[in-house]
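Rotation project, supervised by the postdoc (A.L.). Task for the rotation student: set up a whole-complex structure prediction and record inputs and outputs verbatim in this book. Inputs entered:
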Amino acid sequence: MNTIAENIADFLKEYPPFNHLTFVELSIIATSIRVVNLEKHKILFQINDLLHDSFYVVASGVINLSVIADAEETLLNKCVEGDIFGLRPFFAKNNYMMTAKAREESIVYAIPIATFRPFVANNSDVLNFLLESFAVNTRNPKDKENLIGKLISDNVFYSDQQSEMQYFQTLSYNTSPLKTNSSAIVQEVAQLMTEALKNNIVVCDNNIPLGIVTDADMRSKIATGRFPATAPVAKIMSSPVITVLENVSLAEAQLLMLKYNVTHLCVTQDGTDKSIVKGIISEHDLILAQANNPGVLIKEIKRCQTSKELKQIRERLTDLIQTSISKNIPLSHVFNIASEINLAIIKRSVELSILDLGSPPARFAWLSIGSQGRKEQLLLTDQDSILIFEDVSADKYREVKDYFLKLGKRTTATLEKIGYELCPNGHMGSNMLWCKSLTDWTKQYDNWMNTPGENSNDLSSIFFDYEITFGEQKIEDAIGNVVFKNAKNNTLFFDFLGNDALRKNAPLTFFKKFNVEEEGINKDKFDIKTRALMPLIDGARLFALYFDIRGINNTFQRFKQLSITDPKHAEIYLNCAEAFLTLSKFRILEGLKNDNSGQFINLEELSKIDREKLKNALAPMRELEELIKGKFQLTQFS
Amino acid sequence: MLDWLKNINKEQPEFWKNYVSKFEKKSSRFVVLSTETSGLNSDKDVILSIGSFAVIDNSIVIADSFEAVLLQYKFLHDNGLSNEFLVESKMKKLGEPDAIKACIDFIGNSTLVGHHIDFDVEIINAALERLDCGRLKNEALDIDVMHRKLNDINDKQFSLDELCTAYNIPKSDRNSAAEDAYKTALLFLKLKSRLGIK
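Outputs recorded:
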């Protein structure tokens, strides 16, 4: 055996199903491996290709598995380091049913089926894993957490079959249920349930389930006065519990609940109530298994206890956005839903920080600024926020500020774990500069607006898009008053903002070609954020401030409102509103495709029609530019 | 220059004749080769270990590999060097004649690939001369040259580590001829696809 085979065996033993094999067995496998390098976008196999004589393990990089149905490419799964795919040759003789394509430059290990087959036959754990991988099509991020390595399917269920198929999928449920013994006092049990935010608790004797107490029992037996809150829990529990085996399917669980008219099923080791409790399936789990709908997500967020759980939800939001867009749900609607969910996530993050730090010493407001402030955040972009706390006496100021800085740090750290990158410019509530009292903030805005350009290099227009996420509404109102009072007849300020809006480089060259990046890693790509979206966003903000339009932060809605307030130029505003949606869609599609912020569009990947569409959407910008030039005297700063 | 004249009357070993006869056919197999040597002078220094892998159809075939530690007891002793690593190594241990013979059998008529491969070829040639054989006949590709050709750089050389960084290949802490050969093989695959070599 050679050194490299040993290294490969070392790598494999970390991942299922290889972790079931001994090192000697792995060494045999590793020795027979071929190492394949796939350049970006290289197809390893595609639908209807003859089966290869090996299956694959990703050593580095990302492989996309996709199917083409109705002339549309649907992404089934992304395989990352340690994932196995291409199992079809194990179980079936017909050709591949999916396409495996390298999303980035990747290295995969090809393991010959002939070498691996004996180990499958002799080891039931390995066989089971492969069978499951082959049979289950899991795109549920919740599962990702539960499994050490993702199961990746080679079977394809087309969307029309999916509704039937999901009934046979296995459920994910609570595997660490609350437990108590039969002599516990109801009041204590209720306290326990409240703290854990659970609506049920299993009454056990040595982990053998005796009964279950749910919110309904509390309502019907305690709150009605039939039993005192000091009674032992055995008096009010529902018994016996309905028990099921561990790998119950969605369909079966649903049937059992209907049959016995219960809301919870108890999972036990052998499926009877004489063995150890393994978990609790609630109706809630069934709903989750069926849909990623926005309502469910928001409800879920409120229960989350850790950033990890919130991260899962954020991942599901990405799925939701992806399906919404593929179903042609209007983008303005998608913006609304996504921003509500983002809002809930940020809110919960602040709450979690407060739970850790204790209650705040003063009232405060956590404002999201920038894209989330405008409710336009669909992709995982960076987080921008500010924190305003009410004025406190001078002797307490230090202590209060310390608390809020800590709060800011904790919250931004949580959000970072969820996937919102920290703002590179430090525009966050955790920054000394952007976490201060209401008076200081009033001064700050006064300064920015009355003497723009002077000693205020840090003025960023994103501070004028704000949305309260958590805390006192009154504080946000106070800041709003300051902003609009200062904006009135403030030519200097509008001069500054106007110049700022026009400073961005034109999206098209003189010859009506796209102005692409000239160097760097994004060479020849079109910077849609800076060149197309920002001018529209800046323009909308400028006019909204000018026309005293309050409470509308969304660029699309700002333009809509402007067309009503300033009917003379309604046509331009409406064109801009449409253009904004079109451009956003381009950005989102690009972002979803590449798992990034979608700032740079790869024009070569666009079809000719799409390219024309993109070009047309850039046209209203010129009109808006002219309008800005005509409306404001842009002399001071140009 | 007149090496062949010197050798013309000597009977060459069987394995060498066998090696030469393989060149009647052309090969599509590549052999990535890396040697660990006692120094950089091909006349005075000796090979301490050899690691190599075959690359066939754009993939590294792990089973088709050769690695060995050379038992250079005499050289180490003469130069007062420790032979500890020889004793510790778990790799196959061979005397220089056997190792070179096995290596030549393994290489066959494949195209050689390596990092600064000319030196590896030179030092193997020196060892071959001690066995009364001719010089290696294989074509050879240097990944450093390939990299410089790809990026149009003429004025500088790149170390294996630099190349690994440039192509995102994880560095390992263990350093041996086999590790180097493996990294070189990965680099070769990447460069090969970028340069469009069939």
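Student's summary: Residues 42 and 123 of chain B are 5 Å apart (CA to CA).
Supervisor addendum: Chain B is about 45% helix and 20% strand.
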